[in-house]
């Protein structure tokens, strides 16, 4: 309820700041909506930095006081999150059966909670300015960038985390992507916010008493960061042996029918038929492509699958719900969202159980059973897989499996890379979100993981985006959304550790700590900031 009340409190607080606030309120909302377009499928790093810098310029001129700045920034950030995550509405209403109004309120409440992290980072920067810990545009940008990235890290950890739409994901094709192998997506986010802050301060510097000379420091800072960004473009990985021939299945099963008992045999027949379309060493299905536990599958159906695998494939990574054991013992109730690696002989080479479960879909947070009961989604409370996650040997290479949105948590995949994984495989079912921008955003996230770890990624999904990504984050093969098709791709596993693969979040925190320290040191040699304009 507090999350639902916060937007109203924000509007009331802005109204207290007079007519000026109400005039600039639609501008901030519009800039927030535009910033959502910086992510996939429209992605543009320039648009993101541009909208951020304009929003910061408005905030610093019209909402300079801490309370007003917090409220106004929260509203700007909330607009971005609602637009960028609007696809959640599809899962709650179309497939969950939740009333439209309640789904809309749930989306606003959830996005308000997420926006509070970024707004808190902005508030801390304002407090640091008031107490003269920062005094000029250069140190202000450094501190805000570091605080923002720390808030994103926190958002990706609290209540199991939801780091979707971190700023850095808009930069998979921009110059700032070169920071990803060094300190991860949060380093990219930090520099994006930092550059936007410096650009927002340029007009004020030009109008100051010192004129153009005052703008010299932020301009030099922007140029220096961009130059360093180019110089740190290092290839840390090298290819390891011959490529792996892979086959990625995209069955395009309608989510509304996926779990109907009368459709199970038809769906299994579809998977078996798709196996026969290519010779391959590794075949990957989407998450829960096989609807029933392997041990409970009728023997005739299992045999047909294994025969198809023997004729046309090598090892099959099969997304399947599982009980405690694969072949014998307690197979019910279903306890995990899993994948098994099958040979044509029927031998199970390994089992991966999803570790990072989705709140409300795969486990119910305390106190929210009533909310989940309003959605008629056939999933329940799963158990988390054991840690550390296993790495599997396929065709002489280490393969790291992850399921669905687990690839939003780079530290977990980095741990698999340190264990010897040369290839990342993601198995997803985004059918819950229709043909929305969630599919393209998830592909963008997968590209960032390949950039950070310099490992190729294979993505097999139910409805899209099924793709092969090379170790530099480039999409080398791709299937259109909502098509029943297979993707044949050769990928070159790699070896060698990037700084982020070696140190994961510690690399991010080291960079952010250095930015804070540099900001404080810079402030000591900077005259006090001119009084801010506005409320």
Question: How would you sum up this structure, described in words?
Answer:
The protein is α/β, with parallel strands linked by helices. It has two domains: 2-234, no CATH class; 244-503, Nitrilase/N-carbamoyl-D-aminoacid amidohydrolase, CATH 3.60.110.10. 47% of the residues lie in helices and 13% in strands. It is built from 17 helices and 14 strands. The strands form three sheets. The protein has a six-stranded mixed β-sheet with strand order 6-5-4-3-2-13, covered by helices on one side. Strands 7-8-9-10-11-12 form a six-stranded mixed β-sheet, covered by helices on one side. Strand 2 (244-250), helix 11 and strand 3 form a beta-alpha-beta unit. Helix 3 runs antiparallel to helix 4 and helix 9 packs antiparallel against helix 10. The chain starts with a helix and ends in an 11-residue tail after the last helix.
Main β-sheet, spatial strand arrangement:
6-5-4-3-2-13
Q: What helical percentage do the residues reach?
A: 40-55%
How many runs of DSSP E, i.e. beta strands?
Answer: 14
Tally of domains: 2
Global mean pLDDT: 89
> Roughly how many Å apart are the termini?
29 Å
What low-confidence regions span 5 or more consecutive residues with pLDDT below 50? 531-535
CATH architecture of the largest domain: 4-Layer Sandwich
Major sheet details? 6 strands, mixed
The CATH superfamily title of the largest domain: Carbon-nitrogen hydrolase
With helices defined by DSSP (H or I, 4 residues minimum), what is the helix count? 17
Beta-strand content estimate: 5-15%
